[in-house]
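Folds vary. Our protein:
___
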Amino acid sequence: MAKKSRKLRVIVLHGPNLNFLGKRDQAVYGSKTLDSINKSIEEHAAALGIEVATYQSNSEGSLVDFIQAEASGSGAIVINPGALTHYGLSLRDALQDTGLPVIEVHLSNIYAREQWRATSVIAPIARGQISGLGWRGYVAALDILAAD
């Protein structure tokens, strides 16, 4: 008898200030709110047969705590680390410690902005990075993970 495969569960994390999407500089970050983006993520995940757990925090420690609590029941992580991209070393360590594939997502093209934004401490441990596609970067990450 064939063993039934387990549904892929993906942690989707949003870092500092992403709770202000829709209010922040819309020319850079778009007009969708975080709630609207999460709804799009959840709908797309359901269509792909993926379970998602979304979480946002302005605190690096809270993101680390969530990763440590949720990783064992998950198969991958999609993260927009926000400003923690550039200096969130404890976040990087927590992501790496999971052993899970990580896809880093950025709403804006971080390479077309200030020079300091082009350095990511997350990228070296990530499977890949999606930058500049707006909220669609999250669904693209899910498509990539579903194809594995």
Notes: The two ends are 23 Å apart (CA to CA). The chain has five helices and five strands. The mean pLDDT is 94.
